[in-house]
Amino acid sequence: MAQSTPENWRRTDEFLSDLLVGHDPGLEAALAAQRGAGMPPIEVAPVSGKLLNLLARIRGAHRALEIGTLGGYSTIWLARGVGDGGEVVSIEAEPANAAIARASIDAAGIGDRVAIRIGRAADVLPTLEGSEPFDLVFIDADKQSNTIYLDWAARLGRTGTVVVLDNVGREGEIVNEDTDDPMVAGTRDGLRMLAEDPRFDATALQTVGVKGWDGVALALVLSPGP
Question: 182-196 vs 146-155: helix axis angle to the nearest 10?
Fold first, then answer.
Protein backbone atom coordinates (compact mmCIF):
# COMPACT_ATOMS: atom_id res chain seq x y z
CA MET A 1 0.00 0.00 0.00
CA ALA A 2 1.30 3.42 -0.94
CA GLN A 3 2.24 5.64 1.98
CA SER A 4 0.56 8.98 2.58
CA THR A 5 3.48 11.30 1.85
CA PRO A 6 3.73 14.69 0.10
CA GLU A 7 5.53 13.00 -2.80
CA ASN A 8 2.73 10.47 -3.26
CA TRP A 9 0.12 13.23 -2.93
CA ARG A 10 1.88 15.05 -5.77
CA ARG A 11 2.16 11.94 -7.94
CA THR A 12 -1.50 11.09 -7.44
CA ASP A 13 -2.55 14.65 -8.23
CA GLU A 14 -0.47 14.57 -11.41
CA PHE A 15 -2.03 11.23 -12.39
CA LEU A 16 -5.54 12.61 -11.91
CA SER A 17 -4.64 15.78 -13.79
CA ASP A 18 -3.16 13.88 -16.74
CA LEU A 19 -6.18 11.57 -16.84
CA LEU A 20 -9.07 13.99 -16.25
CA VAL A 21 -7.71 17.41 -17.23
CA GLY A 22 -5.09 16.72 -19.88
CA HIS A 23 -2.82 19.23 -21.55
CA ASP A 24 -4.10 22.59 -22.68
CA PRO A 25 -1.96 25.11 -24.61
CA GLY A 26 -3.86 28.17 -23.34
CA LEU A 27 -3.61 27.20 -19.70
CA GLU A 28 -0.01 26.07 -19.97
CA ALA A 29 0.94 29.33 -21.68
CA ALA A 30 -0.73 31.28 -18.88
CA LEU A 31 1.32 29.40 -16.29
CA ALA A 32 4.52 29.93 -18.30
CA ALA A 33 3.84 33.67 -18.47
CA GLN A 34 3.15 33.76 -14.74
CA ARG A 35 6.39 31.95 -13.96
CA GLY A 36 8.33 34.17 -16.36
CA ALA A 37 7.02 37.25 -14.58
CA GLY A 38 8.25 35.91 -11.24
CA MET A 39 4.83 35.51 -9.67
CA PRO A 40 4.56 32.96 -6.86
CA PRO A 41 3.25 29.50 -7.85
CA ILE A 42 0.10 29.84 -5.77
CA GLU A 43 -2.49 29.37 -8.51
CA VAL A 44 -5.03 26.58 -8.14
CA ALA A 45 -3.96 23.07 -9.14
CA PRO A 46 -5.20 21.79 -12.51
CA VAL A 47 -7.78 19.50 -10.89
CA SER A 48 -9.06 22.44 -8.85
CA GLY A 49 -9.27 24.62 -11.95
CA LYS A 50 -11.34 21.93 -13.61
CA LEU A 51 -13.55 21.83 -10.50
CA LEU A 52 -14.23 25.57 -10.81
CA ASN A 53 -15.10 25.06 -14.47
CA LEU A 54 -17.49 22.20 -13.67
CA LEU A 55 -19.14 24.12 -10.83
CA ALA A 56 -19.80 27.04 -13.16
CA ARG A 57 -21.32 24.69 -15.73
CA ILE A 58 -23.35 22.71 -13.18
CA ARG A 59 -24.71 25.95 -11.74
CA GLY A 60 -25.39 27.27 -15.24
CA ALA A 61 -23.47 30.38 -14.24
CA HIS A 62 -23.75 33.37 -16.54
CA ARG A 63 -21.73 35.75 -14.36
CA ALA A 64 -18.82 34.80 -12.11
CA LEU A 65 -16.82 36.92 -9.69
CA GLU A 66 -13.21 36.10 -8.90
CA ILE A 67 -11.36 37.76 -6.04
CA GLY A 68 -7.65 37.35 -6.80
CA THR A 69 -6.65 37.12 -10.47
CA LEU A 70 -2.90 36.46 -10.11
CA GLY A 71 -1.76 35.31 -13.58
CA GLY A 72 -5.22 34.47 -14.92
CA TYR A 73 -5.02 30.67 -14.73
CA SER A 74 -8.20 30.17 -12.69
CA THR A 75 -9.81 33.05 -14.58
CA ILE A 76 -9.46 31.13 -17.84
CA TRP A 77 -11.10 28.09 -16.26
CA LEU A 78 -14.01 30.21 -15.04
CA ALA A 79 -14.39 32.06 -18.33
CA ARG A 80 -14.66 28.78 -20.18
CA GLY A 81 -17.23 27.65 -17.61
CA VAL A 82 -19.57 30.60 -18.13
CA GLY A 83 -19.50 30.00 -21.88
CA ASP A 84 -20.31 32.27 -24.81
CA GLY A 85 -22.14 35.37 -23.67
CA GLY A 86 -21.04 34.87 -20.05
CA GLU A 87 -18.88 37.20 -18.00
CA VAL A 88 -16.16 36.88 -15.37
CA VAL A 89 -15.27 39.92 -13.29
CA SER A 90 -11.87 39.34 -11.72
CA ILE A 91 -10.29 41.64 -9.12
CA GLU A 92 -6.51 41.98 -8.83
CA ALA A 93 -4.63 44.31 -6.49
CA GLU A 94 -1.34 44.33 -8.43
CA PRO A 95 -1.38 46.12 -11.81
CA ALA A 96 1.62 44.12 -13.06
CA ASN A 97 -0.16 40.84 -12.33
CA ALA A 98 -3.30 42.12 -14.02
CA ALA A 99 -1.33 42.98 -17.17
CA ILE A 100 0.15 39.49 -17.40
CA ALA A 101 -3.26 37.95 -16.77
CA ARG A 102 -4.91 40.15 -19.38
CA ALA A 103 -2.43 39.04 -22.05
CA SER A 104 -2.83 35.35 -21.16
CA ILE A 105 -6.62 35.53 -21.07
CA ASP A 106 -6.73 37.26 -24.45
CA ALA A 107 -4.28 34.73 -25.90
CA ALA A 108 -6.55 31.91 -24.69
CA GLY A 109 -9.32 33.32 -26.86
CA ILE A 110 -11.80 34.23 -24.15
CA GLY A 111 -10.81 37.84 -23.50
CA ASP A 112 -14.28 39.13 -24.39
CA ARG A 113 -15.71 37.27 -21.39
CA VAL A 114 -13.34 38.72 -18.76
CA ALA A 115 -13.24 42.14 -17.11
CA ILE A 116 -10.28 42.70 -14.79
CA ARG A 117 -10.76 45.35 -12.11
CA ILE A 118 -7.51 46.62 -10.59
CA GLY A 119 -7.41 47.61 -6.94
CA ARG A 120 -7.86 46.29 -3.44
CA ALA A 121 -10.86 43.99 -3.48
CA ALA A 122 -12.35 45.65 -0.40
CA ASP A 123 -12.41 48.90 -2.39
CA VAL A 124 -13.53 47.43 -5.72
CA LEU A 125 -16.35 45.22 -4.45
CA PRO A 126 -18.66 48.09 -3.39
CA THR A 127 -18.43 49.51 -6.91
CA LEU A 128 -20.09 46.33 -8.23
CA GLU A 129 -23.23 46.87 -6.19
CA GLY A 130 -26.29 47.39 -8.37
CA SER A 131 -24.97 45.27 -11.22
CA GLU A 132 -26.50 41.97 -12.31
CA PRO A 133 -26.03 39.39 -9.51
CA PHE A 134 -23.22 36.87 -9.74
CA ASP A 135 -24.01 33.17 -10.00
CA LEU A 136 -20.61 31.98 -8.75
CA VAL A 137 -17.98 33.65 -6.57
CA PHE A 138 -14.43 32.35 -6.23
CA ILE A 139 -12.41 33.79 -3.33
CA ASP A 140 -8.66 33.29 -3.51
CA ALA A 141 -6.97 36.39 -2.12
CA ASP A 142 -5.59 37.64 1.21
CA LYS A 143 -7.05 35.40 3.88
CA GLN A 144 -7.21 38.17 6.46
CA SER A 145 -10.08 39.69 4.48
CA ASN A 146 -12.10 36.49 4.02
CA THR A 147 -15.07 37.75 6.05
CA ILE A 148 -15.20 40.96 4.00
CA TYR A 149 -15.16 38.96 0.77
CA LEU A 150 -17.80 36.51 1.98
CA ASP A 151 -20.08 39.36 3.01
CA TRP A 152 -19.79 40.84 -0.48
CA ALA A 153 -20.30 37.43 -2.07
CA ALA A 154 -23.72 37.33 -0.44
CA ARG A 155 -24.48 40.97 -1.22
CA LEU A 156 -23.53 40.61 -4.88
CA GLY A 157 -25.05 37.17 -5.35
CA ARG A 158 -28.54 35.77 -5.49
CA THR A 159 -30.31 32.85 -3.86
CA GLY A 160 -28.46 29.81 -5.19
CA THR A 161 -25.14 31.55 -5.86
CA VAL A 162 -22.22 29.16 -5.38
CA VAL A 163 -19.29 30.45 -3.31
CA VAL A 164 -15.88 28.79 -3.36
CA LEU A 165 -13.42 29.78 -0.63
CA ASP A 166 -9.93 28.47 -1.33
CA ASN A 167 -7.04 27.50 0.95
CA VAL A 168 -9.02 26.66 4.08
CA GLY A 169 -6.80 23.79 5.26
CA ARG A 170 -3.59 25.70 5.94
CA GLU A 171 -1.64 22.47 6.60
CA GLY A 172 -3.89 21.70 9.56
CA GLU A 173 -3.16 24.95 11.37
CA ILE A 174 -6.84 25.93 11.35
CA VAL A 175 -7.35 23.82 14.47
CA ASN A 176 -4.92 26.08 16.37
CA GLU A 177 -7.07 28.56 18.28
CA ASP A 178 -3.99 30.40 19.58
CA THR A 179 -2.43 31.01 16.18
CA ASP A 180 -0.51 34.23 15.59
CA ASP A 181 -0.56 33.68 11.81
CA PRO A 182 -2.97 36.27 10.37
CA MET A 183 -3.71 34.07 7.34
CA VAL A 184 -4.73 31.17 9.57
CA ALA A 185 -6.78 33.48 11.79
CA GLY A 186 -8.48 34.94 8.71
CA THR A 187 -9.24 31.46 7.44
CA ARG A 188 -10.77 30.45 10.77
CA ASP A 189 -12.86 33.63 10.78
CA GLY A 190 -14.12 32.90 7.28
CA LEU A 191 -15.08 29.34 8.16
CA ARG A 192 -16.83 30.49 11.31
CA MET A 193 -18.78 33.03 9.27
CA LEU A 194 -19.90 30.31 6.86
CA ALA A 195 -21.08 28.28 9.83
CA GLU A 196 -22.92 31.08 11.65
CA ASP A 197 -24.13 33.54 9.01
CA PRO A 198 -27.71 32.59 8.02
CA ARG A 199 -27.08 33.75 4.45
CA PHE A 200 -24.91 30.66 3.81
CA ASP A 201 -25.09 26.89 3.90
CA ALA A 202 -21.60 25.44 3.59
CA THR A 203 -19.21 22.55 3.92
CA ALA A 204 -15.45 22.21 3.60
CA LEU A 205 -13.03 19.52 2.49
CA GLN A 206 -9.38 19.13 3.33
CA THR A 207 -7.23 18.22 0.35
CA VAL A 208 -3.75 16.93 -0.43
CA GLY A 209 -1.91 17.14 -3.72
CA VAL A 210 0.58 19.25 -5.66
CA LYS A 211 -0.31 22.19 -3.41
CA GLY A 212 0.37 20.23 -0.25
CA TRP A 213 -2.13 19.86 2.59
CA ASP A 214 -4.92 22.38 2.23
CA GLY A 215 -8.66 22.51 1.60
CA VAL A 216 -11.62 24.26 0.03
CA ALA A 217 -14.99 25.43 1.36
CA LEU A 218 -18.13 25.35 -0.78
CA ALA A 219 -21.16 27.41 0.12
CA LEU A 220 -24.62 28.15 -1.22
CA VAL A 221 -26.13 31.61 -0.76
CA LEU A 222 -29.53 31.10 0.86
CA SER A 223 -30.48 34.76 1.00
CA PRO A 224 -28.53 37.58 -0.65
CA GLY A 225 -28.07 41.03 0.80
CA PRO A 226 -26.53 42.45 3.99
Answer: 30
